Every structure is written in structure tokens, then in C-alpha cells.
Amino acid sequence: MQRIQKHFSVDILSKIKEQILIWGNKHSMVAWLDSNENSKSTTEGFLAVQAISILKTDHKNAFDQLKTYINSIHDYAFGYLSYDLKNDVETLSSNNIDASEFPDLYFFQPEKLIEITKDGVLFRYPDYLQDEIETDWNEILQAKHIPCTKNSLTIKSRVDKNTYIKQVEKALQEIHLGEVYELNYCQEFYAENASIAPLETYFKLNSISTAPFASYLKLNDLFLLSGSPERFLKKHGETLLSEPIKGTAKRRTSPEKDIEQIKLLKNNTKEIAENIMIVDLVRNDLSHIAKKGSVKVNELCKIYTFKQVHQMISSITCNIKENIHAVDAIKACYPMGSMTGAPKIAAMNFIEELEASKRGIYSGAVGYFTPNQDFDFNVVIRSIVYNQTKKHVSFSVGSAITAKANPEKEYEECLLKAKAMREVLTQ
Q1: How far apart are CA 191 and CA 204, in angstroms?
Q2: How far apart are CA 188 and CA 418, in angstroms?
Q3: SS3 of 272, please?
Q4: Which DSSP letter does residue 321 get?
Q5: Which residues are catalytic, by number?
Q6: CA atoms of 187 and 364, how far apart (whole Å)
Q7: Cα 204 to Cα 222: distance, rounded to the nearest angstrom
Q8: pLDDT digits (tens, 9 = 90+) for 284-311
Q9: Could you report the per-residue pLDDT of 20-66, keeping only the tens digit for each?
Q10: How crowded is the C-beta side of 426, counted as CA atoms within 13 Å?
Q11: Using N-to-C axis directions, what is the helix angle for 407-426 and 198-209, rounded to 10°?
Q12: Per the omega criterion (within 30 degrees of 0), is the bond before 244 cis?
């Protein structure tokens, strides 16, 4: 599909980003991706609104349907892959509580696409909408700041602390028996009969986390507000890049104590072991679609600092084999190792037994395809899920369980990861 391009220069990037999203939110179909000016991102941000076409499906043959869809549109596509597409990749099932009721896969071909670049704003509209570019730009410039609203939700836990600890102890038994080496065990927090202002709540969450892979999805009555710090998988030309996170430490207000936290995380043998296990898993996933000898670990257990936490991140790349479709590259690595465990299939089976909730979009991936079938997807963590019709709000958090895991400390790590979402929903 041919798109007309027009560029506008801007002075203050953060202000125009807010105005673009405020303007975009009047539409029923919205995908917003924001790098928060982080160097890891390919672009400063994207806004995609209104749908020329939509692919919405459950897990059955989902990746084949997505491949057909991407081949047919020859255009950009924005959307998400839920964690439960694992059931399309392997012979698995998802039978736990699903209160959010998001489809397993949802992509749309946007009618209006706006990219935020380092020096301005680039409109990419179909030629039949060329005359609307100036009008829309003027409306964006007039968009008014939305003040933060106070949410006062009552947050419940799907499992209490005692149950959480018992489940971690079960996981440790399986690990000691050698059934799995590591698995990511997650728990859900939720509010019923709840109403929030999604955009205002997203702005508040983003101001707290300023994450490099933040996203806001509005798919009619379904909303995702994400402060994700993690990239799942990116394709640029023949290069694939995965950047799994394993290892978390709390920020401290004192600079000296904050530096000490970095040192402690950097030398934490448990966190290092977790990270290396996932790096090995990612290397194995990529090896199935990579040119021989091209899988490389560019960064191993490097510490990155975010507003609320320090994170241990590794970086793995490869050159993709010829004739491997972009969707098949994603499928080969799905679901991401950082949210499953090792061995992956055994971990996913046991996760289904341990957890009380269907993960749905949580620990899935949000991102986009380009017309030449490059892509970039995050990992849906540090995120709020909202079904407006059902008035159901939830967020989930997890941690990697290994042989050295302490159930009490794992629970504390979950509460640390939940802090930002809980704050914006209760204060």
C-alpha cells in the first residue's frame, strides 16, 4: 500500500508526544509505542489509529493466520501476541481464570500513522487522506494537556502470600527433582467493578517508569497501559535482536546506596544464573532460524538503570536464514524465555499448574510490522490491563524461580515490580 509522507519539525519532543496521543485517543482503535527517548529504540514513537483491516483470533493456527495477513496487506500492522499463543506453538492449554477476556491475537492495519522522529513528526497517510494531514496536524497542536486523575481502586490478590509461598515451594521441588531448571511464576492483582480513565492513567504510569518500550493500546473497549522495560524481539533486515531481562534491584534515594545496589545486583550469583539460563534458552531458540555461526551474545548480564529499579539485561543477535518469514522467526522464539523458563515446554506446563490466572496479553508482546516485514516487539510486563465493558482492571507480576530461590524474597520482588501499577491505580 502506498502512503503519502509529510514531515513537521518540532522543538519540544515530550510536549508534542503528549499532544499526539491525546489527539489519537479520540479514535476507537489506537496503538501508541513510546521509547521515552531511550537509545535502545529504533524510533522515538508511533501512533497508529483507525483500522483499514483487522486480524483478531484465538490461538488456533494463529501464527499461520498472522503470516497470511502480513503477506496480504503489504503495509504496517500494529497489535499484540498473547502469552497463550504458546498453545499454537506447542501442544499446551490455558484453563485458568480469564477475567480480562482479551483475544489471543489482535493486529490492525492503521489508516493514519504518525511517527515521532528525533527532529519532528512524520505523517504516513494513504493518498486518499492526503488532504487530512494539515487538518490533523493543526488539531494536534491544539490538543490540551490532560491533568492526572486520582484512582481509588481496591486491589485484590488472586493468591494470598501464604499460597504464593506454597506454590514457589512446589516449584522448588520440581527444580530439585530436575524436571525444570528455572521457571517464571506470576501472580495477578485485580479490581472488580472498576472504572479508570485509561489515557490519564497511562500518562501517570509512564511518568513513573519512563520505560523504553512503553505502549498504550485502545482496541474499542480493551486497553493495555504498559511501562515495559524489555524488548522481546526485533528484526531489521537480516538481523534479529533479543534483549531478555532477568535480575531486579530496587532504586535507592541516596546516590551512594544506589551505586551499592548496582554492585550487589552485578555480583548476585542467583540473578546471574537466572540471566545466563535465559540467554542459553534464547540462543537455542534463535539457532533454529539463524545462519550457521551467527548467534552471538553481545552483552551478558549488563546492568541498566530505570526510574524505580535496576535491571540485568543481556543482548543476543543472529542473522536470519534466507526464506524464513518474519512471523516464523517470532514463532520460533515464542513465548519469550524470560517469561517461561528452561526447559521451555516443561516450564510452561508447570506454570499452568502453579498459576491461578490465564496470562492473556500479560507476558505476551506488543509491537509492529513494517511493509518490508521488519518488526519490533516488547514484553508485556509492568502493565495494566483494562476491560472497560466488564469493568475489570488487572496487573500481573512474576519472578524467576531457580534452585537458590527464597520464597519470601521472591514475593518481595513481585511487590517491588507491582509498585508502579498499584500506585497509579490507588492514589
Answers
A1: 18
A2: 10
A3: helix
A4: P
A5: 230, 246
A6: 15
A7: 19
A8: 999 999 999 999 999 999 999 988 899 9
A9: 999 999 999 999 999 998 877 778 999 999 999 999 999 999 999 99
A10: 14
A11: 130
A12: no
Instruction: Note the pLDDT tens digit of each residue in 370-392.
Output: 999 999 999 999 999 999 999 99
pLDDT band at residue 267 under the 50/70/90 scheme? very high
Predicted local confidence at residue 379, as pLDDT: 98
Mean pLDDT confidence for 165-194: 96
Instruction: Give the gyration radius of the chain's Cα atoms.
Output: 21
Distance CA 271, CA 275 (A): 6
Predicted TM-score (pTM) of this structure: 0.97
Cβ neighbour number for residue 355 with a 10 Å cutoff: 22
For residue 16, give the C-alpha cell. 508534542
Q: What is d(CA 304, CA 211) in angstroms, rounded to the nearest whole number?
A: 11
Write down the residue that cell numbers 483475544 correspond to. Answer: 103
- Amino acid occupying residue 399: S
Contact 400, 347 (CB under 8 A): no
Sign of the torsion formed by the C-alpha atoms of 417, 418, 419 and 421: positive
Q: Which residues of 338-352 are buried (b: 16+ CB within 10 A; e: fewer)?
A: bbbbbbbbbbbbbbb
Count other C-beta atoms under 10 Å from residue 38's C-beta. 16
Q: Which residues, other chains included, contact 177 with Cβ-Cβ below 8 Å and sequence gap of 6+? A: none
CA dist 373 → 57, 149, 248, 326, 390 (Å): 20, 39, 33, 6, 35
Residue carrying C-alpha cell 501442544: 91
What is the rounded distance in angstroms from the CA atom of residue 348 to the CA atom of residue 332?
Answer: 15
Tell me what pLDDT residue 165 has: 97
CATH topology of domain 3-426: Anthranilate synthase (3.60.120)
Check if the beta carbon of residue 140 is closer than 8 Å to that of residue 23: yes
Grid cell 492526503 is found at 130
DSSP string, 360-412: TTTTSEEEEE-TTS-EEEE---SEEEEETTTTEEEEEEEEEE-TT--HHHHHH
Rounded to an integer, what distance in angstroms lies between the CA atom of residue 234 and that of residue 332?
13
Instruction: Using alpha carbons, select from 235, 228, 232, 202 the residue that is nearest to residue 217.
Output: 202
**DSSP state at residue 299:** E
DSSP-derived 3-state class of residue 415: helix
Residue 42: predicted pLDDT: 72
